[in-house]
Amino acid sequence: MKRAIVILTWVMVFNSDLLAADGDEAQKLYEKAQGAARAGDHAKAVEGYTSLLALKLDKKVVAGIYQERGEAHFKMAKIKESISDFDAYLKVNPERDPHHWMRGISYYYADEFKKGYEQFERHQTVNSNDVENAVWHYLCLARAKGVEEARKKLIPIIGDGRIPMMEVHALFGGKSTPEKVLAKARAGDVKGARLERQLFYAHLYLGIWYETNKEFKLRDQYIALAAAVADKHGYMGDVARVHAELNKIKVSKSQK
């Protein structure tokens, strides 16, 4: 998502400032949990955040810790636990609800599709030109009411400049093809990290598109390609990896 780091950055800065006022024990536990999260040891991060929640801390700090633990739970493919933590965060910060696309993604993997498409409808009010929001809304609506209904209600997007996202939008709208998405991702003289990023998003959303069309062999092929480079693509990289894990898609070493 275009605003993939907004929630996390706000929470981390806010928590760091307030925890400094809550004593050395809390600060050390938080830094340890953060270190584990950065190292990809999400189980250890959850353990650290849980220890923090046992302390008597400011309610805003507690809410932020729930947010961070929710992200760690998601990265462990513990989807229901992530939703519970995100709910706890939003109970204290209800004004952040429209921004919380992470919970929308968790709703999708928890098969709570109505809650999912409603979350993405609210997110559209604060992030109006993000193809990914339209796609995840489509995905939840397709599972709840069918692909034809989802296509009819695909949220229109103008101005998402990330290549190949507008082509991805056209694909989900029935106006493009997988070949065109891949061609768009590779077009021009792009190399290195930029090309890898464009292909990552092409592969992720082609995989999910094939899933909605029940073409599972092709889904597995493209999700595996996206998951193979997950560590380089933030939270959406984690989404690719979790999608592979939940669907038992093999990610080979050669793909990495």
Please tally the helical runs, counting DSSP H or I stretches of 4 or more residues.
Answer: 14
CATH architecture of the largest domain: Alpha Horseshoe
Our estimate of the beta-strand percent is under 5%
Assigned CATH class of the largest domain: Mainly Alpha
**What series of H and E elements makes up the topology?**
HHHHHHHHHHHHHH
Count of beta strands: 0
What is the CATH superfamily of the largest domain?
Tetratricopeptide repeat domain
Shape: globular
The overall average pLDDT, rounded, is: 92
The tally of domains stands at 3
Terminus-to-terminus distance:
23 Å
Helix coverage percent: 55-70%
The fold-level CATH name of the largest domain is Serine Threonine Protein Phosphatase 5, Tetratricopeptide repeat
What structural class do you assign from the helix and strand content? mainly alpha
Global Rg: 19 Å
